[in-house]
Amino acid sequence: MSSTQFNKGPSYGLSAEVKNRLLSKYDPQKEAELRTWIEGLTGLSIGPDFQKGLKDGTILCTLMNKLQPGSVPKINRSMQNWHQLENLSNFIKAMVSYGMNPVDLFEANDLFESGNMTQVQVSLLALAGKVRPREGQPPAQSHTARWM
């Protein structure tokens, strides 16, 4: 049995229960706050669908470069899946170098395949909470304090 069979088709039994429990923890209000924070910091529009807007990783990589300049040296603009997954992987590595706790991180497929958007939300909220005004940055960038 190949491992890809576990990721395809409808969920039944325990996996459906787990998936439904994760979905029930997703907070649309937090999504709206994250959208405002990310768009405000990057100057980029996520669009109407949060998952699809972030899926290619370009906005997230731009976000990390705003928080920690040069943390993602190359952002792929290609629409090829492997380039998008590479962007997500580079974003996750940049979050680690920014000092994020590994338990707060999401995996690329959580966002890319919409597998666990609750974990994506948890990760982004943790990142927003970690942002502190740094020397030389204007106080306007510290508007994430409401998540701390």
Automatic annotation (TrEMBL):
Pfam families, sorted: CH
Domain Calponin-homology (CH): 28-132
PANTHER family: CALPONIN, CALPONIN-2
Record bears the keyword Kinase: no
Keywords tagged on the record: Acetylation, Phosphoprotein
One BP term from GO: actomyosin structure organization
Official protein name in the record: Calponin 2
